[in-house]
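Hi, here's the filled form for the chain we discussed.

Project: internal
Contact: R.S.
Residues: 754
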Amino acid sequence: MGMGMIMRSILAINNDWYYKSQYEQDMETSLELGGFERVNLPHANVELPYNYFDEKAFQIVSCYKYPLSLPKDCRGKVVYMHFEGVMTHASVYLNGSYAGEHKGGYTPFDIRLDELYNWELETNLITVVVDSTERSDIPPFGGQIDYLTYGGIYREVSIGIYDKVFIRNVKIETKNILKKSKALAIKLFVENLGNLQGKANVEVLLSERNGIEVHRNSFLVDLDEGVDECQIMLEDLQGIKLWDIDEPNLYELKLSLSIADVKDEYSCTFGFREACFTPEGFYLNNKKIKLRGLNRHQAYPYVGYAMPKRVQEKDADILKNELHLNLVRTSHYPQSKHFLNRCDELGLLVFEEIPGWQHIGNTEWKEVAKQNVKEMIERDWNHPSIILWGVRINESPDDDEFYEETNKVARELDSTRQTGGVRCIPNSRLFEDVYTFNDFVHDGVQPPLRSQREVTGLDRDVPYMVTECNGHMYPTKRFDQEERQMEHSLRHLRVLDAAYKNENISGLIGWCAFDYNTHKDFGSGDRICYHGVMDMFRISKFAAYAYSSQVAPEVEAVLEPVTYWARGERSIGGIIPLVVFTNCDYIEFQYGENEPKRIYPSSECYEGIPYPPAIIDFSVIKPEEAGSWGMIWKDAVIRGYFRDKLIVVKTLSEAPIPSDMLVEADDSLLSSAQKDATRVVVKLVDQYKNLLPFIDEIVKVSISGPVKLQGPSELVVKGGAIGFWVETLNIQGEAEITVESRILGQKSIRLSIE
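And the returned structure, exactly as it came back:
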């Protein structure tokens, strides 16, 4: 059985746009390109400094233009322009004629072009006027917001060319997950602009992601004009592999629709899984899992939101493979499809929510928010990683009518997932399926978490998850002094431990993964919130190891002492108590030539988490022993053992000196076809490859070849390390990146752009 011809054509149009940062009168109707600069998408309307900038700089109205030339044989087809995300309001024109608009910067939208397209012209001119001001009629604006929204056409754009009948969207619902014989309920949303009525043939091919065929079938469905919804069932599916966090098995569904001489093909990726929050905790495929996550802002230094696919995917890799999380919350808005696709591939669960921060606007504002719910769910309902829809404005007051409506929209669109609504007020009305709460009670003295019923005010347990903690309660820079770093780390650990010990808390999502730029009203005065367990360059603070150590040693051996290893760094002097984040069975600590001391994890203090830290205090090192170390500081060696085998060693230098500069890129092979980018991390280290936390050094970056540096070429090393990104220029070739340090010389790395 053949799948038929592929009649649709999706053309990426991310290269060779024309941009002007200052909107001028009648720019939307002008067909001139004079004074415009050439840019590629994703694009930030203004490149910003790392910190200490005016957040009004990107709150502008700007203009983008794109010369579009379609093949003549597309005449008579339906043509849509697909925008993945434009911040914040987009007005679209074709040859000076109004084509459509969209409110909201975090969800996709389509603009139809064929009815305005002039086929007699060689080139038609698309104009997009982008209003990136903080408009009070569009969420999240109208109040104050503790993050920046940036501006521009910061996600990808494509042109879709279709026959008069085509599949606009597909919703896949997996059935009988825990049974040997499984099923799929498939909803096809067909746009019928050709007024064709009657029986359409739908051919179905279900395959594993590796291409192995699982099932074929064909169906006849009835079509009406307009947007029609058709349903088909695939039953008795055998040998299906479930999607879960350890084995994220994915499947591809291809659908071919034909009626008369019109054909279309649509494909999407999904997974077979069942996710459920209960009063007793969270279950994935009927297996109880304690959720352990962090919140993610999609922001980066210099370019804000405008990072391409590879960099979006890398964040998911960091969260899953470096921090060893099983959950991420997309705070506080829907995020890049590339990030979500990578979460599917990695087995990283996602709690996705609509845009907003505390403020609820007027009736017009609420209508946009409800549209955000719809656009978010219709874009993302086939992602197996997404387990919860956030349908409440983060930390907003109760608004019963509004939240009844947002929950209704979500449940009508997707009955297979539960809803949550993040609040920070106790005794809030519960319209959602899961009570999701930001619990900032822990201040170093108060208990780590409140009891569920104290928060909900209910006389019974309900599905419950803590969605933020720490963060603004104890902001910590990666280059802060050691005692603050240790307390920061332990606060995350205490709350994590408390969540693990409480069976009716489904899990904990800490605030937050990465530092982020913010408005002047928040943060440390330099436009940065230092709330992350990593900095803005995705370089770990010590608190990151509270999370990354909670993984089986077979996956990765973790041994990270929270210390700069200096006698005079702490206010009390010395290094005791010394917290060592580890997943080893035990460690051995050796000071100088002294006999090693065996130390076991502190399970009596941390009864909940899978892998408690080892704590070296005066119960391990007697005061008289520490005194016998004398005034001469020595190296320390910490060895980690698993099943009585040495698996990891950390050596701390008695007298660290700058010994090497490490320069590493996340990727060495990039693409020239579309804008691509990769991160480069520079570390100044001592004799044992440990960071030099207090080194004052400026490094200079120079580049040869077809890549561009984002941000400045002279960088201040902070806490012994700094990062930057380079992006491609649609040219193939070899690029060399050279980093020069005054004290450590030069290091170069090479990238290939194909």
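Let me know if anything looks off before we file it.
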